[in-house]
């Protein structure tokens, strides 16, 4: 999984757009199949801030692992 803030000129048609307040998330369709929840975490560091996306999976009867 990656977090990217510069999208100019990039083809994002293969991603699902999710809007939350003033933030737009682009999530791969495959990830949407397996993630039951997506959490965004920001952390302040010495050299700036860090944004991390964490996908949570909930096992169901359809799981094969």
Topology:
Layout: E1 15-20, E2 23-28, H1 29-34, E3 37-45, E4 48-56
Antiparallel strand pairs: 1-2, 3-4
Question: In words, what does this structure look like?
Answer:
The longest helix has 6 residues, at 29-34. 9% of the residues lie in helices and 46% in strands. The strands form two sheets. The protein has a two-stranded antiparallel ribbon. It has one helix at residues 29-34; strands spanning 15-20, 23-28, 37-45, 48-56. The model has no long low-confidence stretch (mean pLDDT 77). Strand 1 and strand 2 (23-28) form a beta hairpin.
Quick rundown:
By secondary structure, the chain is mainly β. Helix content is about 10%, strand content about 45%.
Order of helices and strands: EEHEE
Number of strands: 4
Over all CA atoms, what is the radius of gyration? 14 Å
| Low-pLDDT regions | none
As an assembly, this protein is single chain
Distance between the termini: 20 Å
Strand order of the largest sheet: 1-2
Mean pLDDT, rounded to whole units? 77
Report the β-strand fraction as a percent range.
Answer: over 45%
Sheet with the most strands? 2 strands, antiparallel
Q: Any idea what the shape is? A: globular
Given the structure, what is the number of helices?
1
How helix-rich are the residues, as a percent range?
Answer: under 10%
Helix/strand/pairing category:
mainly beta
């Amino acid at each position: 999984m990656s977090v990217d803030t510069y999208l100019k000129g990039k083809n994002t048609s293969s991603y699902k757009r999710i809007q939350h307040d003033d933030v737009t998330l682009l999530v791969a369709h495959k990830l949407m199949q397996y993630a039951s929840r997506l959490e965004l975490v920001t952390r302040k560091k010495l050299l700036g801030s860090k944004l991390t996306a964490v996908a949570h999976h909930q096992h169901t009867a359809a799981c094969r692992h």
